[in-house]
Write a structure and sequence with these properties.
With about 600 residues, this protein is α/β, with parallel strands linked by helices. About 55% of the residues lie in helices and about 10% in strands. The strands form three sheets. A seven-stranded mixed beta sheet has the order 1-2-5-6-8-10-11, with helices on both faces. The chain has a two-stranded antiparallel ribbon with strand order 3-4. A hairpin with a 2-residue loop joins strand 1 (about 45) and strand 2 (about 50-55). The model is unreliable at about 1-10 (pLDDT under 50).
Length: about 600
């Protein structure tokens, strides 16, 4: 049976586009873009309690042209630290962006009063902050995109900017798409693209192949006297290179509103947008020469494109392919007609169908995992009860008890394995791109994973040191990938909260926040034995461990069960104290004072 979410997906995409065009927002923003066309860097205009920050279209081309490498991509982190460190791919490597776009943005950041003027709209001390819409046409759209990422990276609770661009070139690679998806920022961008406009597609070709013809066309857009023959040759060259579709690192992100004389439709899926950028440039009913001419003219005629699209969107669209019985297929056909591809374009039909099915698969996977998570809550409750029972009945930490492997510990081990299988399944689906791009930043999974890691990793550590036959460390040899990834997710989420007020702990944590704490204890025990055997180099790591524990106690991030009499930590502490007092009878330290006064109780 057909999913309601699939059936409505394309109808909604078309309805959103129709609303944006007909309500006046997009035409209003285009007017702001035209108003800024002759300024050198940017304009700020307040209208109806909205601040429009607009960047000019055709300025400083010499800064945008890059000839350093084939595609002109560059590392986004080599930008004087302007952007936050969150713009990394899922592999933790920094995103790549077009250095020409970055140069244009940095020029405005460093050589103008841009930051000072933006302060008025981003300062939390302001009583009422106006919404910010960053606007840009052509190269100005690339600058507007980077400006929006810059503000989003500040994590301002009071201000969430929106970005609307027209005919904007692509600016970043797959890692930037992953970062935007992970941060759930895609909804902050709307890129308006005319059916044949060459600029949003030009970086799909190697930059080295389009730099010269683009410079020629750029001069025409600026109003320079360029011979028609040169313009025609340049447009043909640009179109040829784009249609060849060579491998390019650049990828789209955000919502793309494709416009044609038939109407408009919004698409969010990055891969589908990429395919539509190619498909909308091609037509069985339009000659190559006509497309080559349109790809230059449409870039500077968004006013007429929007008006035509508005009128036809309101009128409604007649679907050429009317023999579909499925409302889902009718929705796809309607959207394809709106963006000017045509309902009978099988390639386009397939691309949209695949996008819908892929998102439906994502949603079904998340729903299945959510059901499994609720079932696994009983397993988590069992381990919490096991922890409490060890403390109350045995006077022992559950970490130390687990290593004895009595009957209750054996049962705890079975529960541990069951939970590991569940989280390993999540890791497998995440690694296989079977989950939404923002899955790892969703609070539900961040919180569930964090609680799991803090409760269960101590048992994984105990199992490792109980069963390992080598002298290796849990950190280098035994830590499961699921714990590493869950910790990375949590740390990334904490960065997004860094600029917001954090609640201060008033009592010790119920679970030690550092889920690897007991592995550090085990290594400290080995280091102390080695130190007593003459390996003086171990002293430095032992002193560091002591300082780390002191910091944890002062931050109330260490659970009180660590200090139970006879725990592995308390046994290490007594041996460590004895060693130091033998070396210096008057030895004292911050941790010594804490332990003597039992101030770890909070």
């Amino acid at each position: 049976m057909e999913s309601d979410s699939l059936t409505s997906r394309f109808t909604i995409g078309q309805e959103i586009a129709t609303f944006l065009v007909s309500c006046g927002l997009v035409p209003k923003v285009w007017e702001e873009s035209l108003r800024a066309s002759n300024v050198e860097s940017f304009t700020v205009n307040e209208s109806e309690d909205v601040a429009y920050v607009t960047f000019p279209s055709f300025q400083r081309l010499e800064d945008f042209i890059v000839n350093d490498n084939k595609c002109g991509e560059g590392n986004i982190q080599t930008d004087h630290g302007v952007f936050s460190g969150c713009l990394n791919g899922n592999d933790e490597k920094p995103a790549l962006i077009h250095p020409g776009a970055l140069t244009l943005f940095l020029h405005i950041m460093e050589k103008t009063d841009f930051q000072a003027k933006l302060q008025v709209y981003t300062d939390s001390k302001q009583k009422k902050l106006k919404p910010i819409i960053f606007v840009g046409h052509s190269l100005g759209g690339a600058v507007a995109t980077l400006a929006t990422l810059w503000v989003l990276g500040k994590r301002l609770r009071q201000s969430s900017p929106f970005c609307i661009t027209f005919g904007c070139p692509l600016v970043g690679d797959e890692r930037l798409v992953e970062a935007v998806g992970r941060e759930n920022w895609g909804g902050n961008f709307c890129h308006v693209v005319s059916k044949h406009d060459i600029v949003p597609r030009m970086l799909l070709a190697p930059f080295e192949s389009i730099a010269n013809p683009f410079t020629t066309v750029f001069g025409y857009w600026q109003g320079k006297n360029v011979p028609d023959s040169l313009i025609q040759d340049a447009s043909r060259t640009l179109l040829n290179h784009v249609l060849v579709s060579p491998s390019s690192p650049y990828r789209p992100f955000g919502t793309y509103m494709f416009c044609s004389s038939n109407g408009a439709a919004c698409i969010e899926n990055a891969q589908t947008v990429l395919e539509m950028l190619h498909l909308t440039m091609q037509s069985q009913h339009t000659s190559f020469e006509e497309i080559a001419q349109a790809c230059i003219l449409e870039h500077i005629r968004y006013d007429s494109v929007l008006e035509e699209g508005r009128q036809n969107s309101i009128r409604g669209i007649r679907i050429a392919k009317s023999n579909s019985e499925s409302s889902y297929e009718i929705g796809i056909s309607s959207q394809l007609e709106a963006i000017g591809v045509g309902a009978q374009n099988d390639h386009a039909q397939s691309a949209l169908l695949k996008a819908g099915e892929l998102e439906n698969e994502y949603n079904e996977n998340v729903e299945t995992l959510a059901i499994k998570l609720s079932v696994r809550q009983s397993s988590m409750a069992e381990l919490e009860w096991y922890k409490e029972r060890c403390e109350k009945e045995d006077g022992s930490t559950y970490y130390d008890s687990f290593k004895k492997q009595d009957m209750k510990d054996i049962h705890a081990n079975l529960v541990r394995v069951k939970l590991a299988e569940f989280w390993d399944e999540i890791m497998e689906k995440w690694g296989g791109h079977e989950l939404p791009s923002d899955f790892q930043s969703q609070n539900k999974w961040i919180n569930a994973g964090n609680t799991y890691r803090r409760l269960v990793e101590p048992l994984d550590i105990a199992h490792y040191y109980l069963t390992t036959k080598t002298n290796k460390s849990y950190f280098s040899d035994g830590r499961p990938n699921r714990h590493k990834v869950l910790q990375e997710w949590m740390e990334a989420k904490e960065k997004t909260r860094s600029s917001r007020r954090q609640r201060t702990r008033t009592k010790p944590a119920s679970l030690t926040e550092n889920s690897c704490f007991w592995a550090s204890v085990e290594e400290a025990v080995k280091d102390l034995n080695n130190l007593n055997n003459g390996q003086i180099q171990k002293l430095q790591s032992l002193e560091k461990f002591e300082r780390d524990v002191t910091t944890m106690v002062n931050a109330l991030s260490i659970a009180s069960d660590v200090f139970l009499e006879g725990s592995s930590f308390m046994m290490w502490w007594e041996d460590w104290k004895e060693y130091n007092q033998k070396q210096s009878p008057g030895w004292r330290s911050s941790l010594y004072e804490i332990m003597e006064n039992e101030s770890w109780k909070g």
